[in-house]
Amino acid sequence: MKPRTTRTRVGAHALLACAAVLATALFHQYPLSLTILLCATAAAFLAITPHPRGWIVFLFASLMGPASEMVAVSSGAWHYAEPFVWGVPLWLFPLWGCAALLIIGAAYAVPIKR
């Protein structure tokens, strides 16, 4: 991969991550709207993710991340203002998936010396 392509992809990942965080901060009181925004962000993440099976990682993180939070919420560690299922909001599922794709993008941006 060319260095410029890597920088461009890293920049795009960083921009999408900022968009996801900003959307969460601004729209957390509107769970359906936020879920739609995060799904659109996830689609953009998937379009630029260098790993050919990024969608599998996205689905795994979208299920396992909220599942782990469900355990914490049910134990009383914290709570969400607008829970959807088992104490977690609907928008949390695509947000966890976006986080996983950000990690993949960051990992591919690190050069490997052989």
Concise summary:
This protein is mainly alpha-helical and 114 residues long. The protein has 4 helices and no strands.
What does this structure look like?
This protein has 114 residues and is mostly helical. The protein has helices at 3-27, 31-48, 54-74, 92-109. The chain contains 4 helices and no strands. The longest helix is centred in the first third of the chain and has 25 residues, at 3-27. The radius of gyration is 15 Å and the shape is globular. The mean pLDDT is 88.
- Level of helix content? over 70%
Overall pLDDT level: 88
* Individual helix count: 4
Shape: globular
Number of strands: 0
For the sheet with most strands, the description reads: none
> How widely separated are the two ends?
15 Å
The unreliable regions are none
Output the radius of gyration.
15 Å
Strand percentage:
under 5%
In total, how many domains does the architecture comprise? 1
Structure characteristics:
mainly alpha; 4 helices; 72% helix; 0% strand; globular
Write the layout of secondary structure elements.
Layout: H1 3-27, H2 31-48, H3 54-74, H4 92-109
Helix pairs in contact: 1-2, 1-4, 2-4, 3-4
